[in-house]
Write a structure and sequence with these properties.
By secondary structure, the chain is an all-beta fold. 0% of the residues lie in helices and 19% in strands. The two termini are 25 Å apart.
């Protein structure tokens, strides 16, 4: 399934709560492979973001536990995770 990103710039002030409501639609995709593989990841802390092939897929906690993981097509895959709050190569924080 192709992923479509939602991006919105917001400014949150101390003690303020903002609710952002988004309705995402499935992107058009090609033919799904006949065989799928499951990726499960365990990293501490569980709030660390997980990227597969450069795309954010979830936080680690969403991969843990029975029946949890993400389906992928078999083959090479680049996985990356980063400590929450760590600076990226461009200098911004997650």
């Amino acid at each position: 399934m192709a992923i479509r990103d939602f991006t919105e710039k917001i400014a949150v002030q101390p003690g303020q709560e903002q609710v952002i409501r988004v309705a995402l639609e499935k992107a058009a995709s090609g033919v799904m492979p006949a065989v799928m593989s499951t990726v499960k990841i365990t990293i501490n802390p569980s709030r660390a973001p997980v990227f597969l092939d450069g795309l954010f897929v979830a936080h680690v906690g969403e991969f843990e536990g029975a029946g949890r993981g993400t389906l992928v097509a078999p083959g090479p895959l680049k996985s990356r995770s980063r400590s929450p709050g760590a600076k990226t190569e461009g200098g911004s924080q997650d």
